[in-house]
Amino acid sequence: MFDCYVGPCSFECSLDQEGFSACVSGISYAGLLDGEHNFQVRAVSSEGKTDPTPAFWAWTIDTIPPDTFISSAPANPSNASEVTFEFYCTGGDCTFECQLDAEIASPCSSPKTYTDIQDGQHSFQVRAIDSAFNTDPTPASHVWKKQNWFPTSLVGALEGRIGHSAVWTGTEMIIWGGFGYYPFYPNRRYFNTGDRYDPASDSWTWTSTIGAPAARSSHSAVWTGSVMIIWGGDGNNSEHYNDGGIYDPASDSWTWLDVIHAPLKRGGHSAVWTGSEMLIWGGNFYDAGSGITTFYNDGAKYNPQTDHWTPFTMLGAPAPRRYHSTVWTGTEMIIWGGRDNSFVMNTGAKYNPFEDSWRATSPIDTPS
Q1: What residue numbers bound the domain in which 263 lies?
Q2: Model pLDDT, residue 185
């Protein structure tokens, strides 16, 4: 709408720099294309005098909605209870509306963080609104599942087995040994194969079998910080072992341990790494000929730098047993629980390798 201050007047209008032509206030234009436009109007007096400075108005027509894109989102699946989304739009400055699951869409900005995400399937949508108030009709979306367990890849994985060992290197899990029932129960097949699992890439790498110890289960395994030490265990035909091997993942190679001064053959024992030595304790030996099982309460310290075994005192040691638990505190090895042929035990003791001494754990309030 337009008018002049001194009347009566007539008017001439111009759209987008086209020539002026007679018009009246309230003139409208249809079919204008997206883009920049301008309008001018000048008054003409009854004497034919024309306004030398036409009134001017410029505007932009924008009917094209923006596109919305998500540039960062949680992995699918994810175990994160706090998730953050980053997003942007095409077509200049935009505002955004976000929606999580069945919630109502609400104004938001990038990055957008949600907390207390529960286990299960989730969806996130975000739509951009440009400065012309065009709304993206196809919001960007992301679907993911929040879970705490993730299946490992089966590509390159070992055959199914039990009685194997596992250590963590800081970047990989190393699996070794064990047995399976092949072709069916109760036929046991023992393994001397191993596999390294990298959780970052969800990939498996077989360990070398060249120079590896004989196939076995119920052996012990410790990680020293650079190598894995395997010792003892049970094998085919009720065989027991007092040998082992040192596996170096950096070179994918094995080195044998001294067996001359090693403890007696056994399985079901425990092992811990002190930072400089491996401590072996307990376990059992089954004599297939007599059918007699012997349980042990002796142990020894193994130094991989010198390849030397040192037995430790049995004075004050717990009763003989197998399948007990063992931890290293930084100064002592603690033994607890286990069983022999007659009893399941709720006793234990602490061994100090620096003093070569045992102290019984308290029997008060122990688990039954």
Answers
A1: 165-360
A2: 82
